[in-house]
UniProtKB/TrEMBL annotation:
The chain crosses the membrane at residues 69-89, 101-124. Gene3D superfamilies: Membrane associated eicosanoid/glutathione metabolism-like domain. InterPro entries: MAPEG, MAPEG-like_dom_sf, Membr-assoc_MAPEG. SUPFAM superfamilies: MAPEG domain-like (SSF161084). It is a multi-pass membrane protein. Keywords: Membrane, Transmembrane, Transmembrane helix. It is found in: Membrane. The keyword Lipid biosynthesis does not apply. This is MAPEG family protein. Pfam families: MAPEG (PF01124).
Length: 127
């Protein structure tokens, strides 16, 4: 579980970084709160942050489920795939939102392997 805790900490720090990028873009492009539109680069940073938040709701508990009922090291590796995929998503989305697909799909697959694996592992233990 040590590796799971480390990877999960990295994922949460990454989200904090994305939040910082939004704040910096808000200042740089003069987008006053509570507005969430105004400049394309601010809007892209904001959408990256929001999409990452939406994904965290799935990936955080899924990583713990998978680690508990299947294998902790594999959960950490899948969590690391998610972490890397979010940087791919971030870089692609900031350049051109239409190119974000690969980063999104990699993260989605990693989180859902953990979710379904955790569910399967828990059900397996019933028998």
């Amino acid at each position: 579980m040590l590796y799971v805790a480390i990877v999960l900490s990295l994922v949460l720090l990454q989200y904090s970084y994305f939040s910082f990028v939004v704040g910096a873009a808000r200042g740089k492009y003069s987008v006053s709160a509570p507005a969430v539109s105004g400049h394309r680069y601010f809007e892209r940073a904001y959408r990256i942050q929001q999409n990452t938040l939406e994904q965290l709701i799935i990936v955080v508990p899924s990583m713990f489920l998978f680690a508990s009922y299947v294998h902790p090291m594999t959960a950490a590796i899948l969590g690391l795939v998610f972490f890397i995929s979010r940087f791919i998503y971030f870089t692609a989305y900031m350049k051109d939102p239409k190119s974000r697909g690969m980063g999104f799909v990699l993260g989605f697959l990693a989180s859902h392997v953990m979710l379904l694996g955790g569910l399967g592992g828990a059900v397996w233990r019933l028998f």
